[in-house]
Structure formats: C-alpha cells, structure tokens
C-alpha cells in the first residue's frame, strides 16, 4: 500500500498546496509572481537556489507546519486495524502512521533502517523521509531524480521495486496532479520491463480523462474516499476473515490481530488440511447475532408454545426442549459475533431453537435431615408464565416446573429421571435424601431460586407425585457399598437401579457372606415337574393331604457380572414353605406330573459352592429329607 498527502488531510496535515503557499509567502512580493504556478518539487528547488543553495532554510520554513493538532485520525486508525497490510509505503512527511500503529510497527526512513525490517511487524517505509533526517528528505526535483537513479537510499528503492514485482499495489491519497507518483509507477514499469502485479488507485471524483490516463499506465481506478473504502473493506473482512483463516488463505497472526480489533479472542484448532474455530470469547462489550430465514409454516411453529417443542438441546448435561431446523429447511443463515461472520448456511447441518436457559446458583436445605448443599441449577422458561429448574446430580435429573398462570396459586410439577450409569455410589445414596423429602412432603428450602433470590419453601406438592421405588433404590445403593467392602475395591463403573440389578446385588451378597435372603413372590405360585414312578417319594406326595416344604438346588456354569466385577457361582438354592400338591397326573411315558402351589408369598434363597441345602443363618429351621430328588 502507498499513501499520499491526501490520506492525511482529514487529520489536519498540511497539503501540497499549503506547503507551496508557505514557500511563496516567504519570497519577496516582486519575486513571487515568477513561481506561482510551479509544483512543490520545482518550487522547493527554486527556493533553495533563491537562498544561495541553503537547504536548511527550506527545512526550517516547512518543519513547523507538521507540528499540527490532529483533527480526525480515523482513517489511520482504520488502516492500523487491518493486519493484511504488512508493508506500507508513504510519501508523507507527517508521523500519523507511527502514531496509529504505535509499537507494533517498524519505521524505515533511510538505508540504515532496512536491516531492521521484521516480517512479524508492520513496516512503514517513508520513501520521501521526514524532518528527523532533513538531509535525506526528498522534496526537490533533484532529490526525486537521484532516488530513482538509486543514488539516494538505494536500498529503499530496491524494496519498492520488489514490492511492485511481487504484490498487488494499492494507492490512496494521490491524484494525477502528483507527478512524483506518476513518475514512480512509470519508473518501476520501465525497470521491470513492464511486468508488474495489478495496481489500484483509490480517489474520489476523477474525471473520465484522468481515468483514461490511469488505464494507459495499467492502473485500475476505484471512485471513493478513504473512509468509504475502509468501510466497505471492513464489511468484506468481517464476512470472509473466518473462512479465510479456516482455509489458510491468511496467516493465523493476521486473523488473531483482526479479531482483537473486533474485541474477540478466537481459538483455532489446526487439522491436517484446515483450521477449525474451537472457541470464541468476547473481550469487551459485544453480542452474538443469529439471523435466519425459513418457511412461513416453520416460522409459525417457532412462534408457538415452546412446550410443544419435541427435540432436545443438551446444555450442561441437561436436555432443553427445542425445535430442530435442518439446513435444508433454511433459506438463509448468518451467525456473527461483534459483526464478524463465523457461520453461514454452508457451515451447519442443524440449528436448535430453545427457550432462554441459564445456569443459576442455589442452596438446598432440608432442616429435618440436616441436609445442606450449594448447587447449580439449569433454568429455562416458557411463554413467561412457566419456569423449569433442573438439578443435574451424578445419578439423576430432577425437573421442577413452576406454573404461575393459575391465579395466585403456584402449581409445581416434579419429574425425576435416573441415569443409566453414574460415577459415585455414595453421592447417589446422599442425593436420595432430597427425593425422599420432596415426595414425603417435608420442608425443602431453595434459596435464590426465584422472586429476587428470596428463599422458597417446597412442602407437599400440589399435584400427586405417585408411587416411587425410592426405598428399593436406597437398598440397592447400600448393597453396592457393602459389596465394595466385601470385594475390597470400588467397582469400575456403576449401573442404575433395576429389579434385575438389585437381584444381582442380593445374589452376590448371599454368596460372599454365605447368607440367605427372603425374596417376595406372588401367592399361590404353581411349580410343575416330573418324577419317575419308582421314586418312593412320588407315592408320598399326595394331592391336598398336607403342607410340604420344597427345596430346589440349581447348578450353573455361567459367570455373574455386575458393575465390571465377574464371578462364578456354582449353586443356587431356593426353599418354598407352605406348599401343597394340587395336581398329580400319570403321563404316557410312565412318569408322574406334579403341580405344587406355594402359599407363603416369599421364599428363602441363597447361593454357595456346596450343592447341599445346609441350614443358613437367618432361615428358620426346617427338617428336609436326607435324599434329594435328582434332576
């Protein structure tokens, strides 16, 4: 990029015309008429000659004009916010660029400065110098002639030629009345045999004649002021910078510098073929904006009651009711943060529209249980009259919906969903205290839940919460703790309570403790089996004669697996009391079919390595026949 005097005029810098007038005003009135129409470079040379070759007097005359108060610095600040321009060449003597870039730039004014060029920082080449080094200042016709012949600051001239040969060039703040820049372009083209990259000029209101002159030297014209150009450029950068960074069309440094200009800290994750946006953090005030357009039918559904949404959006492990819209259902989509486009329709597969949701802090107290916990709840609302709070524990989700719509009464609905797996059995047992208290109608106090943070006391819910299996779950968690003590190590994972899993804990406890447990069963259960006719006991078992006690031993070669722990249990024993024969039938094969009814409503059950039905602790003494009926 090349910047001319016109770029600094809005900031209050002197123009070429004002410099010319300053020189003219310093001449004697009768001499002044001879130089009125001379351009600045010619007039400067004549002024030095007029003062007997004293160049210092010219410098002393013009230097105070560059000690000006800045009026509007916005164009320079806009440029400094665009990190794509890594090398900036200027013919201006002012120091506005240095002020805009601050410590993030390197300034090259003389040959000696070229060695300081660093690719990591923006470099400002002041090819005409400035008043810090008056002897190197390019201001007269002879100065420019020497520069183009590489007799002055030849290293800087070499960089200029290389820049034309390797990059497109953009000129701002120049007009075709500026013969020096016209000469610069012609000289570069001459020394490169006419081969250069595209050249562009930004300037307002050039006539068609001047535009044709630009075309003749291969310059493409853009009719705009600098501030308009920067405005359009920022819009394009906002629209494309993220995709360019993802596709590695710009460096990560350039991307991060631009994002910081937009008050964003964006984390990129690099893969083999592209970069991915991993995280977006707003550094100061800012906003996330989503704009999309869809069909009228879907729009009406979006504006309906959120409680009718049938899809799920996960937030901190909590399902939020939502409406899913696929990319095929979208006509337009933009997601921007502080104006920077991060996603459009091509980047997404689905969007989810959900009630406003947030994470809030809360304290739960149950005075009767000495229970007190500081926790986080997920809150979401529907239509302004219903608020839902979700407690996400390790073992369950408790959803509490408060309906404020019905007069002054607060209607509370409770729903608990237990998780398939959990990680901490002690915590699972601990949090059952809350569920039991709620379902029993005990005092449960929620602090900072709603209504400005005042405590809310939940007593007996307005609606019926129904029957629960909480006692069974507590017994299950207690069994798991006891099993870990017997095994001598914690389980590698924990599965939720089910009747089958509960039965597994009872089996393992029976086997490891060599103990018995009572298992409920339906009354009047019927057991069917066959007996061979020569078994004497087949004659003893008569229909309706008396009560019997039946013991059944089963052998198994399978392993029992529970929570990652496995063991082989050889024998299962079952003892049924208060049993009677209800049917006895002779079969065609000569065997006797027996049907036995059990009336006790429970049975004894235990597991062991021993096939014999020995008496177990906790089981009443019952005398069994010495010889079991074989399988």
Features:
631 residues, alpha+beta, 7-stranded antiparallel β-sheet, 17 helices, 31% strand, disordered C terminus
What structural category do the secondary elements indicate? alpha+beta
The amount of helix comes to: 25-40%
- Please provide the count of β strands: 32
Spans of at least 5 consecutive residues with low confidence: 620-631
Tertiary shape: rod-shaped
What's the gyration radius in Å? Answer: 45 Å
Distance between the termini: 98 Å
Number of helices: 17
What does the average pLDDT come to?
87
The biggest beta sheet reads: 7 strands, parallel
Strand content: 25-35%
For the largest sheet, list the strands in their spatial order.
3-4-2-1-5-6-7
What is shown here, in short?
The chain has 631 residues and is an alpha+beta fold. The longest helix is centred in the middle third of the chain and has 21 residues, at 226-246.
Describe this structure in words.
The longest helix has 21 residues, at 226-246. Residues 620-631 have low confidence and may be disordered. It is built from 17 helices and 32 strands. The chain starts with a strand and ends in a 23-residue tail after the last strand. The chain is α+β, with helices and mostly antiparallel strands. The radius of gyration is 45 Å and the shape is rod-shaped. 29% of the residues lie in helices and 31% in strands. It has a seven-stranded parallel β-sheet.
Strand and helix layout:
Blueprint (H helix, E strand, L loop, with lengths): L1 E2 L12 H10 L3 H4 L7 H11 L4 H8 L11 H7 L6 E4 L5 H6 L3 E4 L13 E5 L14 H8 L5 H13 L2 E4 L6 H13 L7 E5 L4 H9 L2 E5 L2 H21 L5 H10 L2 E7 L4 E8 L5 E7 L1 H7 L8 E5 L2 E9 L3 E8 L2 E5 L5 E4 L3 E10 L4 E12 L3 E7 L3 E8 L7 E8 L2 E2 L2 H16 L3 E4 L8 E3 L11 H18 L6 E2 L3 H15 L2 E5 L4 E7 L4 H5 L7 E8 L3 E4 L2 E4 L2 E16 L5 E7 L3 E7 L23
